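Reply to thread "Modeling small-molecule complexes from scratch"

Following up on the discussion above, here's a worked example others can learn from. I took a protein sequence and the SMILES for flavin-adenine dinucleotide and predicted the complex. Inputs first:
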Amino acid sequence: METCDVLIVGGGLAGASLALALKPLGLSVVVVETLTPETKLASPAGDRALALAQGSVEIFQQLEVWSQVVSLATPIRHIHVSDQGHFGKTRIHAGELGVPALGYVIPARDLERAVVDVCDRRSVRFICPAEVTGLQVQGDHAAVRLNCHGETRLYQTQLVVAADGGNSKVRQWMGIGQQVHDYSQVALVSMVESERHHQNTAYERFTPSGPLALLPLPKRRNALIWTQGKRQARKLLSLPSRDIESRLQHAFGWKLGRLKLVAPIRGFPLRLIRAERLFAERVAIVGNAAHQLHPVAGQGFNLGLRDVMVLARLLEDQQRRNGNLGALGLLERYAKARLDDHDRIISFSDGLIRWFSLTAPISALGRNLGLLALDHIPRLKRWFSYQAMGLSQQYNSVNR
Ligand SMILES: Cc1cc2nc3c(=O)[nH]c(=O)nc-3n(C[C@H](O)[C@H](O)[C@H](O)COP(=O)(O)OP(=O)(O)OC[C@H]3O[C@@H](n4cnc5c(N)ncnc54)[C@H](O)[C@@H]3O)c2cc1C
């Protein structure tokens, strides 16, 4: 049986970022990942664009990842929120808030590649391709079983971190339930070239069939995230590009001139999943394994990255006190520290969807008055902007 201090199940963005955050502590950390970097980077899921909040950019600067991707990231200098067919709109400008950017947009694949490269350079120990197939808690440690090239290997560790994504097996093995809300929607993701330059504006447009976001990419390109009901999405996907473009144009309007699809459209089914607990004996849960959100507000990974940093900070404190890294007290502190941020971001993202799904005229009127208020009341606007920028939650860095 091999041993380590912390075993991270899943080397996606959350798991790999945690390994980087723990690097300065000199702990023995192992990341187990099923997919090779080549398979992962070739996956169509890498096409999705991630809106990184300013708070996440600051974390990636500390993890020495940001310098690798800054040239690939497009700053968001303005956010424009509107409701199709109604008068309300809200505009947020980085300049008004005294920040250079409200966030950055980066293709997920570029960020994943950079995180893997930095892990490589900093000698993070990856066991890959390998799958964690079971775990058992035994007193002051957990025994983890993995399948690596058809062979079974056993690890003994103080702490297991479940960073194994929305279908987390670790969560299931530990008997942690989940709350699931199926939006019965699909996010259609692609890239669009616009006749006019976006001027670094992220557009969020709520339409009767679901929210539509255009996020700025280099030149006149924009990442499209277009939410549709399942049946409608299937129908759209069966249409020729020209017809899809004309429906998109109708939904978005002409603010950016003519829109042209320049990449295949991919569909991601949308569900809100929230783990009922963030820990079990010897196990902490981070990232999508803990929460999977609707992408409309671009918050899912930003929230997961804050899980990672809070857990890393607590592990640093525990190490300084010579405590066991999987101690129950530490896990309880982790869950408590994350509760407010999870509650707030989940209600913010989910509330946005529900608020904009109401079709009754009185609801639409209230919503549009709300958007106007947001546009004209500086304190309200500042609150909304801070939620969107991921700056409303503080954590202490481990890399001070
Ligand atoms: C269309 C779309 C748009 C989005 N836009 C945004 C956005 O703008 N901003 C934002 O913040 N978030 C966004 N998100 C969310 C973001 O993509 C996710 O939150 C993030 O990628 C989750 O990372 P993760 O590491 O937690 O999970 P995952 O990426 O799912 O990684 C889990 C890893 O664990 C591995 N694994 C699983 N089981 C095992 C096992 N048993 N053994 C070993 N390895 C295992 C998997 O192979 C995988 O690599 C979006 C999501 C979608 C679908």
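What I'd highlight from this example: Residues 395-400 have pLDDT under 50 and may be disordered. The domain at 2-72+106-180+271-353 is CATH 3.50.50.60 (FAD/NAD(P)-binding domain). Questions welcome below.
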